[in-house]
Design a protein that fits this description.
alpha+beta, 10 strands, four-stranded antiparallel β-sheet, 290 residues, 25% helix, 6 helices
């Protein structure tokens, strides 16, 4: 639903100012159903909202926008072309009178106003989980679901990032739940901490933050639980496989350790395996470990 497909619509309260003065190319691009740049730039711009107004830079070529957002999010080489005056930058001013608007669900009408929006991110990205204990006498596995990782009101303004970054994790514990419980508390937090260091938060930044979060969590767990010992259960031998999925707009990053799996199901019945188990039954994994 990145451009408002599905779900129940209700009137939104957002309008692009000076809509009639925009070029035909710009208006068409803003309303294109596959335009991903404008919704993401709007999410970022809402962090700097002032009196209900946000300004979104547009890099223009031949009378139409080719990039939205602040310079740190631009494609490589664009800044130089702008500095050399080969390309121009024009501001797009958006007035928002309802700050609960989910900008990634916004679709513009021909007059530049909002067609509608969803009632929060829950309906933009639906998710659910099912947990089965299996043959154990207790549940060793855990999972986390954050539809909007940085929406937690307990976070300070300095800790928050733009809305619309989702984080899902499945932690397959074994020989106890201590490790999977630790992951529930720490892995997403370490991902968030790593992501705050990234300026553009591109797909590459998301991937790097996921990788760094796994490493950071593993090292901290070793120090806190294994090396120093847990006071309540100093001799525990638990461990956990883990898989996480991070979604931002149309970008998805998968990270995993062990034999947890991610499977993508497409409309029409196609199934795509997105992970390969880290087990010694996998010859490539055996070679990697050697």
């Amino acid at each position: 639903g990145a451009n408002g497909r599905g779900g129940n619509r209700r009137p939104g309260k957002m309008v692009v100012e000076g809509w009639a003065q925009l070029s035909d190319k710009t208006r068409a691009d803003l309303r294109h159903p596959k335009n991903e740049g404008f919704p993401l730039a709007l999410q970022e711009a809402k962090r700097h909202i002032h009196k209900g107004i946000v300004d979104i830079p547009m890099v223009m070529r031949d009378g139409g926008p080719i990039q939205y957002g602040r310079p740190e999010s631009w494609a490589p080489g664009l800044a130089r072309l702008v500095m050399d005056e080969i390309l121009q930058v024009k501001p797009l001013r958006v007035r928002i009178t309802d700050d609960t608007l989910g900008p990634d669900a916004a679709v513009l009408l021909p007059d530049g106003s909002v067609d509608g929006h969803f009632g929060g991110y829950d309906s933009v990205l639906g998710c659910a989980y099912s947990s089965i204990r299996g043959g154990c006498s207790y549940q060793e596995d855990r999972c986390v679901l954050f539809r909007d990782l940085f929406s937690d009101p307990s976070l300070s303004p300095a800790q928050r990032l733009e809305p619309g970054i989702s984080f899902f994790g499945v932690y397959d514990g074994h020989l106890g739940s201590q490790t999977s419980e630790y992951l529930v508390s720490h892995l997403h937090a370490n991902f968030a901490a790593e992501l705050r260091h990234k300026k553009g938060r591109t797909p590459g930044d998301l991937k790097a933050a996921v990788r760094a979060a796994f490493k950071r969590t593993d090292e901290a767990f070793w120090e806190e639980w294994v090396k120093e010992g847990n006071k309540q259960n100093p001799k525990h031998n638990s461990g956990s496989a883990a898989v996480v999925v991070v979604i931002r707009g149309r970008d998805m990053v998968v990270g995993h350790v062990g034999d947890c799996r991610v499977v993508l199901s497409r409309a029409g019945g196609d199934v795509v395996e997105l992970t390969v188990d880290h087990t010694f039954e996998n010859e490539r994994e055996v070679e990697r470990v050697k």
